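Help wanted!
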Amino acid sequence: MKCGFLDVPFSVLHAMLVNGVAGSSISIRDRGLLYGDGVFRTLRAANGKALHWPLHYLKLKYDCDALGIACPEEALLCAELDKVLAEHPDGVIKLIVTRGQGGRGYAPPADATPTRIWDFSPLPGYPLEWAEQGIKACVCSLRLSAQPRLACVKHLNRLENVLAAAELNNAQPHGEPAAEGLLLDSEDRLIEGTRSNLFLVSQGRLVTPDLSRCGVAGIQRGRVMAWAVQHGMALQVRDVKLEEALHADELFVVNSVIGLWPIRELEQRHWNNYPVATQIRHDFERQDE
Amino acid sequence: MKCGFLDVPFSVLHAMLVNGVAGSSISIRDRGLLYGDGVFRTLRAANGKALHWPLHYLKLKYDCDALGIACPEEALLCAELDKVLAEHPDGVIKLIVTRGQGGRGYAPPADATPTRIWDFSPLPGYPLEWAEQGIKACVCSLRLSAQPRLACVKHLNRLENVLAAAELNNAQPHGEPAAEGLLLDSEDRLIEGTRSNLFLVSQGRLVTPDLSRCGVAGIQRGRVMAWAVQHGMALQVRDVKLEEALHADELFVVNSVIGLWPIRELEQRHWNNYPVATQIRHDFERQDE
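Answered by r_m:
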């Protein structure tokens, strides 16, 4: 272990890999730091398997392509992932791919070699009842900006999420804090959660916001969309206003770490029955076993 | 030198400081990498002095405040800057301040200790005639997104600049390449250059785009604005359309590394006389001696 000088507990260091070598640090000249010039994936590991790895790799490739970063070969990443899983069969695995090191200046160097970074953390201890009985959600005041060139991509420019998550932390000095914040764009369209994608169930249809202007298209969003198609349920990807969401029969958010959480409370509206969300969650949990 | 294992020439390593210690790496858990959760400054060093350090520190403090990052004390940064200057009296010095290391999740940890990163690079060898005779500029196709919460701030979320700079590199397979690209927002307003702020001289007035929706307000922009006030020249900070710029008497861009470049060619329009830009440049060069 070359890099034990950093202030990180030794016990977790062996699950950190940088370009295939145990390590917990990157160059200060890496463009991932300098400009957020990279993409990332957050994977759930369970029983020594990274759930939905093929979907994660496809998405990583899509996101790298969007930035013109040469996506590392799947076989190389799989071999590295296996090293991480061998040490940590259960928890949350993060994979970052940056454009690599680069000289001064924004322009991407033609010969940059992408940096591959793996890290591990334990599964967060969310209350089990959030999945079953739903969460309290709120609407963040931060509005997402529209950038079609970066929409859908899970890149490392995440300051909007940071500002929105800070609102969640600072809100509700009394009473139950919101477990997730929903984000609107500047035109009052509902886009996503601070760390999740959003679905509505309305008149027997599944509806999820169009992400062509902003937002991150996560792989769990894709899985829910595929579920709708497989189960013959009408699916709409389109603009959604908050008002429509407040009148939906069900609302739920998804991501790879939380799984699926129905929304129980949002802006004085309450729900207590989530038949579609519960069916999807059960189907997904069965697939993940 | 603790960190000589990275693939960086040894000769430059001693000018790299991380939290006051010689080093060329940061933790892969630094939020600067994970989310671009930090800010930066690019300083010009000349004859062992960092030009306009007080302005840079004020701007750093403003930018840290905008993100809720505790800005390091000026005395601490000055002491570190002196170490860098002692090794490298002339060139370009970069200072990055990130929110520091943080656990998983977007929310800023309440107890994060900001990371201070210093790096050095030689002054780029731009042709001298660019300052005197002007540059060729182009208009980038990438449109800046509007995010009032982050406007003006020089934060680490710079993918829009990366994409715009890549256009510059890829454009003009034949003929003279553009030295700078100008950026519009989604409403066709002219905002800035990919790495510079923009000014127009028009009917005896200095005009610079309003940056309340997007763009970075650099310290050289502030210096030009102060120059106008000191010299009794009318100054307007407002929305500017490309069409107006194409009909301006002079156009010029500024930043701390390039200084001031007049624009000689933009979208088939040509200029060859820059009395105001030249006066400002000469005044600035005198101040910097």
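OP: Thanks! One thing I noticed: Chain A has two domains: 10-121, 129-288.
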